[in-house]
Design goal:
Strand order of the largest sheet: 1-6-3-4
Distance between the termini: 29 Å
Mean pLDDT: 78
Strand content: 15-25%
Low-confidence stretches: 189-195
Largest sheet: 4 strands, mixed
Helix content: 10-25%
C-alpha cells in the first residue's frame, strides 16, 4: 500500500510539473501585485474532483521533481517568485479550497481561503491555472476548489430550486431501514439526513 501511495504521489507531482512546464512556455509576466478591481464582477472558476485535485505537487527540496528545484535550478516559472526569491502572491486571484461532507455536523470545511500563492509543502492544479486566469482576465478571479470525491451531480450537487429526493435503504451496521434525503432549496431539510 505504501508503494502504491508513493507511486500515485510521484505520478501526480510529475503530471503537475509537466502541466506547469507546458504552461511556462507561454512566458507569463510577473504578477503586478495590484489588488483586484472589485468594481468589476468576479469571475468564478470551479475545480471539482477527488484525489486528482488535491495538492500533490511537492514544493520543498533541492531535487528534481520539486517546485523549488524547478524554479531555482531549472529556471522555470519565474512569475512564481519575486526579486527576493519569495513566492509571489496574486492580489487578483482568490483561492478557496473546501473538502468534506458539509452540514452543521459534517466533516471537512474550508481548508484554504487566501490570495493565490505557494505556501506549505504542496501545491495543486489551481496554482498554474490561477496564474493564467489572473493574467488573462481584468476582473477579480475566484477559484473555488472542492476535493470531496464520491459525489454525484444528480444527488449531492443539485442546483438551487431542485426538488428533494428521498431514497429508502438499509443501514449496513444496524440493519434498520433509513431514508436518505437530499438538501433542497427553500426546504426545512437543508442537509442530507446522513450528515
Amino acid at each position: 500500500m505504501k508503494l502504491k501511495n508513493k507511486l500515485i504521489q510521484t505520478l501526480s507531482a510529475a503530471t503537475l510539473l509537466a502541466a506547469l512546464t507546458l504552461s511556462a512556455s507561454a512566458e507569463l509576466p510577473d504578477p503586478d501585485g495590484k489588488p483586484a478591481d472589485i468594481s468589476k464582477p468576479v469571475k468564478v472558476f470551479i475545480i471539482m474532483g477527488q484525489s486528482n485535485t488535491l495538492e500533490m505537487g511537492r514544493v520543498k527540496g533541492d531535487k528534481e521533481g520539486t517546485l523549488e528545484y524547478a524554479v531555482k535550478t531549472e529556471k522555470l516559472y519565474p512569475f512564481m517568485v519575486d526579486e527576493e526569491g519569495n513566492w509571489t502572491k496574486r492580489q487578483d486571484v482568490r483561492n478557496v479550497h473546501t473538502q468534506g461532507s458539509g452540514g452543521p455536523a459534517g466533516r471537512g470545511g474550508v481548508r484554504r481561503n487566501d490570495w493565490l500563492t505557494v505556501s506549505g509543502g504542496k501545491i495543486g492544479i489551481e496554482t498554474g491555472i490561477g496564474h493564467h486566469l489572473g493574467n488573462a482576465l481584468d476582473e477579480p478571479v475566484l477559484i473555488l476548489k472542492s476535493s470531496i470525491g464520491n459525489r454525484s451531480l444528480g444527488w449531492d450537487l443539485l442546483p438551487p430550486g431542485s426538488p428533494r429526493h428521498e431514497v429508502e435503504t438499509t443501514d449496513k451496521k444496524t440493519g434498520k431501514k433509513i431514508t436518505l434525503v437530499t438538501p433542497a432549496y427553500n426546504d426545512k431539510v437543508r442537509y442530507p439526513s446522513w450528515t
